[in-house]
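A note on notation is needed here, since sequence and fold are reported together in a single record. The reader may check this reading against the record printed directly beneath this paragraph.
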Amino acid sequence: MSATLADMLAFYQQRGYRAQLGPGKRCALIVIDFSCAFTKGVSAFPGGDFAAELAATQRLLAAARGRAPIIFTTIAYQSDMADAGLWAVKVPWLQACQLDSGVVDIDPVLERRTDEALIVKKMPSAFHRTNLHEMLQAGGVDTILIAGCTTSVCVRATALDAMQHGYRPLVVRQAVGDFDAAIHALHLADLNARYADVIEIDAALTYLARG
């Protein structure tokens, strides 16, 4: 229990995790939970500073528009929380994420367009009890570029589910964030080792330019 973050990150190097999935033939951009609740914070909900990650996501969106499907997600619940399940019991501040409230809107800095899909999800993974898989299948997508927050929760869950559904998840390093830098770094390393490729934004922009 005395291991430092450097020790934990060194584990992945020592184990020799090197394999890469690489991109497939057609990618989509999924922006996970960059809602105002997460990017601005509200009473009883601990938002974070994701200014740099939002700026990187803006670059991805500019490259993707007109070339690749774009899908946003947000977490939102009924006022009685009947649709929240046990996650809201474990994480009570999710009760702040109420349907039809401004806090669940996508941060306006991203300028989401009306023709860009929005998935309202109840659980960490964007695949859980949503139509994301069907949307990707309809678009002929085999690769998903992932931006958003948080790395350790919804980004991780979505990347894992993407791999399990047969998609190539590519997590864009500069466009994902977490509330804690050490947790962020550790989960990026684990994702890259086992479930996804963690890629630089320039590589993501190159993939999007292919259409």
Observations:
- The chain has a mean pLDDT of 95.
- Helices lie at 5-15, 36-39, 51-64, 87-90, 132-138, 151-164, 181-194, 201-209.
